[in-house]
Design goal:
single chain; 242 residues; alpha/beta; 6-stranded mixed beta sheet; 8 strands
């Protein structure tokens, strides 16, 4: 169904807006390759090369790319998660680049023509795509929380490499952070990263930031939700609910 949706989109919706289906398809494929990344326009263009073009020598301009990125928004294909750290007095938060996702997680598999069997045998791609439904569910649930901010879900990455896949912050300053990992083998590293993220703003006396309500790692295969450390939990995507 997702592949058929994309075929109709390229055959009808894109030409109706006076754009070329081939370029739109290449852009969606590029976004699918960079899911959950703060991809620059240069990176997106590099992934949109035609077979006849030498590496790094695309004929598309940045202006053309910008017009096609603008096209994806009214077509409800692209979701941007802006960057921020839950620290009200840190100007640096405004300069964190947003991460891009396809609005429906199935589109990331449909664009390159991957089915469920192919995904089972390609864990790297599966892990990348897994982040999309997690972000989608967090967006849905966060929007239903009273006193949520203008941006229900944000991400964070600083110059030391410390990051969080998702941060939810209320207007009163309360916040929580999430890291996402499809399998259990990477959970300890994610827990360690979240502990450092929690300590960084809270350990800064000039930050005026309280502790998180909780922080968590979202996984794909955990059999049950559990407490990994004080204030840190490991939960399955199946447990995400209001």
């Amino acid at each position: 169904m997702a592949r058929e949706y994309l075929r109709l989109l390229y055959a009808q919706s894109v030409p109706r807006r006076r754009k070329k289906p081939d370029i739109a398809s290449r852009l969606v494929a590029s976004v699918a390759l960079t899911l959950g990344q703060a991809a620059t326009r240069k990176t997106l263009l590099a992934d949109m090369l035609e077979e006849s073009e030498p590496f790094g020598k695309t004929s598309l301009s940045h202006e053309t790319l910008a017009s096609y990125l603008a096209l994806l928004k009214p077509l409800h294909l692209l979701v941007k998660v802006p960057g921020r750290i839950p620290e009200a007095r840190l100007p640096k938060r405004l300069y964190v680049k947003p991460k891009g996702y396809l609005a429906d997680p199935s589109l990331a598999a449909a664009q390159p023509g991957m089915g469920s069997t192919a995904l089972v045998h390609n864990w790297q791609t599966s892990g990348t795509i897994f982040e999309s439904p997690c972000i989608r569910d967090l967006l849905v649930h966060a929007q239903a929380v009273p006193d949520i901010g203008f941006e229900p879900v944000r991400c964070y990455r600083d110059d030391s490499g410390l990051k969080a896949d998702a941060i939810i912050e209320l207007a009163d300053g309360r916040w929580t952070a999430f890291e996402i990992k499809v399998g259990e083998e990477g959970v300890p590293a994610k827990v360690s990263s979240l502990k450092r993220l929690h300590a960084k703003p809270c350990g800064n006396p000039k930050a005026h930031v309280g502790g998180s309500e909780f922080i968590a790692v979202i996984t794909g295969f955990s059999l049950y939700a559990r407490k990994a450390d004080e204030g840190i939990y490991v939960i399955s995507i199946r447990a995400l609910a209001p």
